[in-house]
Amino acid sequence: MAGKAADARMLRLNIERAAQGHSFAQTDLGLRYAEGIDVVQDQAEALKFYNLAATQGFAPAQYALGLCYMTGNGVAHDEVRAPRLFRKAAKQGLAEVQYNLGRCFEEGRGVVQDDEEAVKVYRQAAEQGLVMAQYALGRCYELGTGVVQDEDAAVKLYRQAAEQGLAKAQHALGRRYESGTGIAKDFAAAARLYRLAADQGFACSQYAIGSYCMLGRGVTHDVTEAARYFRLSADQGDAYAQRWLGFLCEHGKGTKRDLGEAVCLYRAAAAQRNVWALARLGVCLEKGRGVAQSEMEAAAIYATASKLGGAEKSFAYGVQHFNAVGERSAPELFTLQLAV
Q: Model-level pTM?
């Protein structure tokens, strides 16, 4: 009860201060109306108070109003006006605004696309410790976007963001340890980072640590753990995880043997043009493994896999050729080199 009474007093006080022109109180009321905090949610009222404070040059209000225009929340979507407001707020040093302004420059949203300007404002935000800006600036250094490519600088920024717990920064730093790019190769360090990100639900890392568990790379070989992580990633739509989980289901490695589920997983990955999954799906269709046998459908799948075959060099396979009426001509055995 005491907490509610205090909230009510604060609301009354901010209403009085907002009427007197206090920009902080106006912004607070804007937020309350936007979120329905102690008042009936009303986006029009929120915009009114944000406008009052933004007109006075109050950076948080300029940012909040800019977000409304960027998302079309309660106002007509306007990607030109949003960056103008972000720019005003960014000049006052708000890190989160600087980051969002950087995204506008990087993506060309409401402004002329300018990678160098994006790097400039990302850096301003990163120097204030904003984790998303650290990651974004690290990515710019990794790719050489708007700045001279510098893997050492990328590693430093990814590490800063990873230490703050950002999953995609942990994954990016893990990739650096895996490849030995900008840092000494260390599979154990990569595995630790992948697992940290995976346990936050980051699909790419769930696939990566699953692969490490299956191969015994940087961690103890454990196919059951690999299947668990592949399933988590596959459930989020990761094609690589779907293909591997499909293979484990097909052969009963680390999980229950289930040919029907294997085919479903291969189809899901094949729909994303995953070459290996297409080829395995073709084999299942040709042989009637977990699905009704269909040499015609297998032929079409093999043809698609053949066209995309250069995309995955880590797997060796032969594509079985069919003529126009579905009869085999010059068949080649599909082969897969895989140790599980």
A: 0.82
